[in-house]
Design a protein that fits this description.
The protein is mainly alpha-helical. The chain has one domain. The protein contains 6 helices and no strands. α2 crosses α3, α2 packs across α5 and α4 packs across α5. The longest helix is centred in the middle third of the chain and has 20 residues.
Length: 141
């Protein structure tokens, strides 16, 4: 995945904050970051930046930077009988799970470079959970 330009990143961040369905997904990802990784103590703006990167990575990799792809995916879930809020929660959970794995971390590093924000322990020493502290030793090591 190619590095995203600052202009494209700014455009997508604006879109996320201007479109209700994207903003709801963003807020859900933020919530998942705090709950799943026990990150309530982290700076909310750092968690927000990480959530924005997850959503932008999904927009770039699956929808070629077009927000309509997310909207159509949500509508497809709704057409299958899911409530709009359930479709949003399911979409957010899916992309959160994907982009917080080791592969997702690599993809986000490629896309955002040194300006990446990680909450996931899968990012190792780059995770905000370990900044200023040593990463925990592996079991059995």
């Amino acid at each position: 995945m190619a590095r995203i330009s600052q202009e494209e990143r700014d455009r997508l961040i604006r879109a996320i904050h201007e479109h209700d369905f994207l903003h709801r997904i963003l807020r859900r990802i933020e919530h998942l970051q705090r709950v799943v990784f026990h990150a309530e103590h982290l700076d909310p703006m750092f968690v927000r930046a990480s959530a924005e990167e997850i959503l932008i990575a999904d927009l770039m990799s699956r929808h070629r930077g077009q927000i309509d792809g997310v909207y159509y995916a949500l509508r497809k879930s709704e057409d299958a009988g899911k409530a709009w809020q359930h479709a949003i929660a399911e979409y957010a959970a899916y992309i959160h799970n994907y982009y917080t794995t080791p592969l997702g971390v690599v993809m986000r590093k490629d896309l955002f470079g040194e300006d990446s924000h990680f909450v996931t322990p899968a990012a190792g020493k780059d995770s905000a959970l370990y900044k200023g502290a040593e990463a925990p030793a592996k079991q059995g090591a």
